[in-house]
Amino acid sequence: MSEPYCVDVDFAVLRDAGNTALSLLAWGDRVSVVGRTDSRLEVTVPAWRTGPDGALTRFEQAGFLQRRTRVDGRTRDVAVPVADSKVLQVTFVDVQQGDATLVQTPGGKVVTVDGGENVMFARFLASRFPGTGADRRQTIDAMVVSHGDADHFGGLPEIRESETNSSPRKRFFAQPVRVFHNGLVKRPSSVPELEAFGATKKSGSRTVITGLETDLTAVPASTMNKFFQAWRRALTGWQEDGGPIEFRRLARGSDDAFDFLAPEGIRVEVLGPIQTSAGGTPGLAYLRAPKRGVPMAHLGYEPGSLSASHTVNGHSIVLRLTYGNVRMLFAGDLNNPVEEALVKDHDTGALDLTSEVFKVPHHGSHEFSAEFLRAVSPLVSVISSGDENSRVEYIHPRATLVNSLGRYSRDDAGLVFVTEMVAFFETVGWSTRQVPPGKPAGPSFFGFRRSAYGLVRVRTDGERMLVFTDSGKRDIKEAYAYEVASPGTAVPVPVRKVG
Questions:
Q1: DSSP structural state of residue 259
Q2: Reduced to 3 DSSP states, what percent helix, strand and coil does the chain have, rounded to the nearest 5?
Q3: Domain ranges of the chain
Q4: What is the rounded distance in angstroms from the CA atom of residue 98 to the CA atom of residue 86?
Q5: How many other CB atoms are found less than 10 A from the CB of residue 126?
Q6: Across the 499 residues of the chain, what is the mean pLDDT of every consecutive 10-residue run?
Q7: What would you measure as the largest C-alpha separation in the chain, in angstroms?
Q8: Is 399 exposed, middle or buried, given 0-12, 13-18 or 19+ CB atoms closer than 10 A?
Q9: What is the DSSP string of 53-74?
């Protein structure tokens, strides 16, 4: 009978009976132990085999791990029972133009932050949690939608749609327990811009959106744009199949929404959006667009130029997760007005932005505050971007932003990852698109196949932090490690590879 274990070193080489390396397993990866000797563990791990037609087939790969190693003069097990593992896993997923992050706690809690606009996050979840079904759904303890732009949540209904996919490996059956959002629901595009989020009130010189929503399934579909309508259908379907969902509109101070993580020593602060009021009614202020046609235009604002797009971005949910001595800041699509407000509170001690890991706002847009980057002072910055076609060609990340991330990184060797740049591709050559029988063949094109997903992975027990990406070769990673003896004192250390 197999026993569930987790790798408990940075990397462990999986070898076959003849001692040939098969793959490289990372800290926190699960294995099933099926046998052991004094020197080795016999294990199986989930793996994928590529067929002649490019189709993937999942199988259990058998192999051996070195059983023990010496670390800092002490003998240490290379793998430990799942219950003894203390590794928090955060994975930033390449969804092309968009954001999607998976958080997995040592105790098995699952939180998603956004979900891109296409099927890529759904495909990733299907591979990460294989074997789900209508009667064995994967619990998602919280789905966080940072804000209502399609490239952040339009891919979440694809998770629901995947349940009917003809390929079992592409199906993912989820059961969300909580859905957190900022309360802004986009109306159809025919609605005037200043009515894009429903009712507003004046408060002095400000226009405040007061038509904030909580239960998205209670909002009439006719008042939503097509992306929110799809999201509403998915949520309604999950409730019909798996039971009620707790809906909550988050604003600064809603930290108790994440109390379900507290038993594992994980604290989450909600730093945004920053709520205001008008006539006693809570709301979110309309924000201004930056000046146009001026170099570094993001540093100024035209009076009166209220903008729906900048409003929904600026009121992104901002989360700061703390586990032990490691802090991670998830900043949605923040822009200057709110970044400047957060920096002001940081500088007065009202809050702390300093974080070891930083999900960079707005895919590396030119709209950033250098002072905000200074306040965060990250060790690891992750930009989620992918300008894959002319419809979403935003020139992300901007050169000025990448330069500033390097300048304001806490360490001289600060890490800056871009999700689209850590994906790997192999040449397929001239190809034709598959069409239904009897239909004319489509035009040929020169094709490439994804050989490694674009994933930036962070693993930590609160005192050590490992950051790595995959490559097209299963036994090669780009990896960095830090010891974090106390908050703010991360020191680069060698990556440990066993076997």
A1: G
A2: 25, 40, 40
A3: 3-82, 86-421
A4: 30
A5: 24
A6: 94 95 95 95 86 69 95 92 97 94 98 96 94 95 97 97 93 97 96 92 93 96 97 98 96 98 98 94 90 55 76 97 98 93 97 97 87 96 79 76 90 88 83 82 81 90 96 83 93 94
A7: 76
A8: exposed
A9: TS-EEEEEEEEEEE-EEEETTE
Q: Token pair for residue 7?
A: 């790798």
In angstroms, rounded to a whole number, what is the distance separating the alpha carbons of residues 93 and 102?
A: 8
Distance (Å, rounded) from C-alpha 336 to C-alpha 343?
A: 10
This prediction's pTM: 0.93
Whether omega for the bond prior to residue 361 falls within 30 degrees of 0, making it cis, is no
Q: In which residue are the tokens 């099927």 written?
A: 119
- For 364, phi then psi, to 5°, come to 85, 30
- Kindly report the backbone phi and psi dihedral angles of residue 71, in degrees, each rounded to the nearest multiple of 5, phi listed first: -130, 120
Q: Taking Cα atoms as reference points, which of 371, 183, 142 lies closest to residue 275?
A: 183
CA distances for 223 relative to 186, 229, 403, 475, angstroms: 8, 9, 42, 51
Q: Which amino acid is at 235?
A: L
Q: Enter the CATH code of domain 3-82.
A: 2.30.30
What residue has token string 């407000």?
341
Are the beta carbons of 353 and 320 closer than 8 angstroms? yes
Closest by CA position to 10, among listed 70, 106, 78? 78
Is residue 320 within 8 Å of 357, Cβ to Cβ? no
What's the CATH fold of domain 86-421?
Answer: Metallo-beta-lactamase; Chain A (3.60.15)
